[in-house]
Prior knowledge:
It is built from eleven helices and 18 strands. It is an alpha/beta fold and 356 residues long. It has two domains: 3-270, Alpha-Beta Complex (Spore Coat Polysaccharide Biosynthesis Protein SpsA, Chain A), CATH 3.90.550; 275-355, no CATH class. The strands form five sheets. Strands 3-2-1-4-10 form a five-stranded mixed beta sheet, sandwiched between helices. A five-stranded mixed β-barrel has the order 6-9-7-8-11. A four-stranded mixed beta sheet has the order 13-15-17-18, covered by helices on one side. Strand 1 (3-8), helix 1 (37-45) and strand 2 (52-57) form a beta-alpha-beta unit. The model has no long low-confidence stretch (mean pLDDT 93).
Amino acid sequence: MARHVVILAGGSGTRLWPRSRERSPKHLLTLHGAQSLLQSTHARVSRLTDNVYIVTEQSQVKSIREQLPQLRDEQFIVEPARRGTASALGLAALAIAERDPQATMLSVHADHYLGHDEDAYLKTLEAEARWAESRRSLVTVGLRPPYASTAFGYIQVGPPLDGDQAPAVYRVVRFVEKPDLKTAEGFLVSGAYLWNLGLFSWPVDVLFREMAAHAPQLHAGLEQVRHARRAGQADEADRLYQLLPTEAIDYAVLERTNNLLVVGATFEWHDLGSWADLHDILQRDEAGNFVEGESVLIDSKNCMIHSPRKLVAAVGLEDMVVIETDDAILICPKARSQDVKLIVDRLKQMGKTQYL
């Protein structure tokens, strides 16, 4: 049973504005080290298999080709329009099933950051695929929360299915999507919850079966897309895809099925969903500041400053984010960095799309 890895690379990373834009989204930025997040992800999963695909949208294909010139046309799975991860993963499963109906599919995100233990990451993905194949199940990966957070979905787990084997595998008891802080703190203390990392595996036919049971409208739409593709009607397939519901795979299928397992992650992982998240992994000075560019900082600490073209001078600044680009400057407290997406929403409302 061959394994195929898809890299989801269609998002825009609105919480890392103003560096992350529609045409230069988060996964195409070099935020840490010498490679973009996408390049690092591709190099990592290519150690597992040669069957690696990029799931993206048309506006990003050119930029991705520039970063990964070794990719062949058939390694691109291009969404005609953004329809959420449920539709995107369904489209990827269709494309893979056309080539290998018995395939096992793994899905990873292009914009996650790992520590240096890539071997532990790949071992977890291999375990995930093995369980997906042996149990004919949907499988996800969960991380023991290092702290209480309201930014992640939580998975309540039962006892491990495989004794003391590592990485541990659990049956999922329930999902709780992005709880409030008090609830998240209770989950942390209980020890019975994992963060959902959004790293999935399943035999492609099992995914279609679960979609038919739990997301029948999506499944019916994908079947229409499949028939149009088989008939060589590419434009019609694109038109039908744009009619699919916009929904995350978590809501559409995973939170509804009773055929879901979770493998416990044993590697360092960061979502890099905000400037505060990025600040946490970067090399900081003795005052806790990360500065890219020239600066004069007086009595300032724990700040994230990116200004490669202009001197930043600050007095008494604490726990702040300052990000400068050619056409915009972002200033906000680190604690509010998740809310940068509200600026993007406001710019859309104001029609100031030149900043997006």
